[in-house]
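Researcher: Sequence of Fumarate lyase N-terminal domain-containing protein follows. Predict its structure.
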Amino acid sequence: MAGIQNSAGEMDNKFPCKDEYRKYRSPLVARYASPEMAFNFSDVKKFTTWRKLWLYLAKAQQTIGLDIKDDQLKEMEDNVGNIDFEMAAAEERKRRHDVMAHVYTFAQCCPRAASIIHLGATSCYVGDNTDLIVISDAFNLLLPRLARCIQRLASFAEAQKNLPTLGFTHYQPAQLTTVGKRACLWLSDLLMDLRNLTRVRDDLRFRGVKGTTGTQASFLALFDGDGEKVDRLDRLVTEMAGFQRSYIVTGQTYSRKVDIDVLSALAGLGATIHKVCTDLRLLANLKEVEEPFETDQIGSSAMPYKRNPMRSERCCSLARHLMTLVGDPLQTHAVQWFERTLDDSANSSLALVLF
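Model: Prediction complete. Tokens:
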């Protein structure tokens, strides 16, 4: 490894590996995330959603009466996926503002539409609304997988309902139970998690078209003080984004109580997974259950025949991390002064990424 870095501690470009291996890669993506979930939290998903939101806003503004041309909308629509990420990064370094960097980058490929991109909006119009879309889509990926897990465990419980096994209290031998009954304990918890996660998903609303402090003043100015038009704008964009409702009251951001709800439900799922997999690890030691062991799998370097409960251990490890994340939104909500502070931004992008 001595030849990897030069004397200044910099990476040696002659080291033969792809660029992606020269920088930190989150194990959440590289090892544990599904391709669908990894894409859901990707830059491509994020910034194409920003552009879609700008398009929805312009379409709704045209519908309500602003002087926006069809060719401007067509230009925006044709370039939703045409993102010059290098230009955007350079602009952000110069402007120290991620949203305005992408407004500028979008405008470069939409010169006719440049004057209407982000018209009347604030940064959280794209930032917060995109987060809500991503969270909603993540739940839509997670919930069917959880339901499938419940279905398979229910089938196992039914098949093993009459198989006796020793029950434990205080991890001391107690009375007999059945394997199916014990599986039903796990099922009951998972069904509560399914209920809680579904509720949180269904309770999610769109931030909608709000102004810099949530007053919609900039949009009132665009529509000459006509509040009904502003309300209609909010409804139209909310529907275009796939939501039935928007939050009635916001500051610059949606309330960070929403993030508390999201991560509390996810932390609850993490606790259930940890309990189930801990039980499986204990049962593996008692030789009552065994995880699948593949033909070429190796238990350990010294004892390759060992059958470690590695899947359960991995689940416990990730679940433990998931359970700790709920502290972040609690702190963020507690210290978000008045209409908004920016110290939630980097924090929420880290806390909400583990689905």
